Amino acid sequence: MCGIVGVLGNHEAAPILVEALKRLEYRGYDSAGIATVNNGTLARRRAVGKLVNLSDLLVHEPLAGKSGIGHTRWATHGAPTVSNAHPHQAGGVAVVHNGIIENFRELRAELAEAGVTFVTETDTETVALLTQHHIEAGLTPVEAATKTLARLEGAFALAFLFDGHDDLMIAARKGSPLAVGYGEGEMFVGSDAIALSPLTDRISYLEEGDHAIITRSSVAIYDVNGALANRPVKTIQMDTTRIDKGGYKHFMAKEIAEQPGVINTVLQNYLSDTGEITLPGDGIDFSDVDRITMVACGTAYLACFTAKYWFEQIARLPVEVDVASEFRYREPPIPAKTLAVFVSQSGETADTLAALRYCDGKADMIASVVNVPESSIARESDLALSIHAGVEVGVASTKAFTCQLTVLFLLVLKAARDRGKLTDADLEKHIADLRTLPGIINTALAQSGKMQATAQKLSHASDVLFLGRGQMYPLAHEGALKLKEISYIHAEAYASGELKHGPIALVDESVPVIVMAPRDALFDKTVSNMQEVMARKGKVILISDAQGIAEASDGVWSSIEMPSVAEALTPILYALPAQLLAYHTAVAKGTDVDQPRNLAKSVTVE
Ligand code: F6R
């Protein structure tokens, strides 16, 4: 989490830094700050809360200088206060940091023994203090920062600026991503290339353990062993247009509405005109795969969980699915002929990346499904499959989820084909169904207004249950996750059949129970569970198609009608009511839809 940016430029740095921080605010919004060096003098401004507070502060207390560093914070160590906000400064050293310095207590103890005092609760202050301590002992800024870096354990991306040095910035990466941007007589660093996109499209990525000594006219990158390293400069294709809401009230609403278009883009990228599934590079030969391990976090994990049903039912391939934070420390054995698949919108999620690294050399192949082709997870995979969702700004993932599902469904079809589990006719039927999906999603979007009334009722609840069976079970989880994260209403998901094994004790007339039940082969079973809820006065919201609603909506509190869709594709379509219900409920409650409390879009700490 946290976003960092640095500039050695030819123009005033403050507005450039603030603009870049806007593009990084998805990483955290607990506080923001910048530091500049102006005619040799280091100074900083910091403000609690969203970036707009820092912008306001800079109007009253401007900061001059063409060299600067900036930070937007998701608090790890220490509350979101001005004093804990970055940049942290010790004497003539200012530092911005993304990550966690795990041995900061040990370093603090050493510094305290040397008589150094602390003014913050953060791990980052230790980095600035240790570097300043080395400078006071007679080292140059470069020597001091290098010596400090050698002591740091944990995950970090860092940028240093020094009093008295208008043309020097030091950047380092271990665990957290950092991009170096090349301008004309200017240099930049940023947590990702998107932050730098209005400034330059020429980017190189620091690798694990690298540090860079940067001036306006030179970059020297050293690897983990201190040897000069050559990191290629790539010209990145990037949408440099300002990311805006396009007339919608929230990014989330815009991103929900974009789904027909981006799913169509996925189909165009992975399907030939003749209906063949085309993967980049050498693709994957599933006839050599005996099992799949899928690992991810949050909504991306739920995309994997959904794909498990597809892989097992359509391609007859066993799939193990796990959340990355558990997988990485469980260290499971990886049998021969395992394909490991990592799904991540950002491509930078720390736990998912660590799980990928665990599988490196153990799994036969590492594939990833990502939205950021230049991300660490993409770069460290044997095969990276882009989901083509475009930039997702809303913290709650929406279009990335349905694009992940679409890419995974195509992989399932490829697997089923390679393994001889799908006839030509069945494959053609699946592909034809897929091609109708964007239109069907458009129809579902038209129900958005009707869902407002249900959401209004939902907004008064304090606990909500989601039920689903079969491939709707992961979707029930997605519905509960979306509702929790943006409306702050407590929500849980259960497999419909599990209800009577305990959770039904929660049901009374105050608990809305959202039942996701397309009229599929399992419909009658789910409806029986729904009746058990209604018999206990639970308020059922039934989400189904016209036939399902006609057959089973007697006595329900509310019903939401989805268009009909091929049975295999229901998880993609039913993501829409999950998203829209959460969205309208959050709007009814007046919560911060795009930047919900305590969250950040890219989780680069474990
Ligand atoms: C929920 C959400 C998160 C992310 C999770 C993984 O709406 O967005 O649960 O899905 O943090 O992030 P990525 O996909 O970037 O690895």
UniProtKB/TrEMBL annotation:
Q: Which Pfam families match?
A: GATase_6, SIS
Which residue numbers delimit the SIS domain?
282-421, 454-596
- Which residue range or ranges hold the Glutamine amidotransferase type-2 domain? 2-217
**Principal localization?**
cytoplasm
EC nos:
2.6.1.16
Q: Which reaction does it catalyse?
A: D-fructose 6-phosphate + L-glutamine = D-glucosamine 6-phosphate + L-glutamate
Q: Which Gene3D superfamilies match?
A: Glucose-6-phosphate isomerase like protein, domain 1 (3.40.50.10490), Glutamine Phosphoribosylpyrophosphate, subunit 1, domain 1 (3.60.20.10)
- What InterPro entries does the record tag this protein with? GATase_2_dom, GFAT, GFAT_N, GlmS/AgaS_SIS, GlmS/FrlB_SIS, Ntn_hydrolases_N, SIS_dom, SIS_dom_sf
Q: How does it assemble?
A: Homodimer.
- Give the protein's recorded name: Glutamine--fructose-6-phosphate aminotransferase [isomerizing]
What is the organism field in this record?
Answer: Sulfitobacter aestuariivivens
Gene encoding this chain? glmS
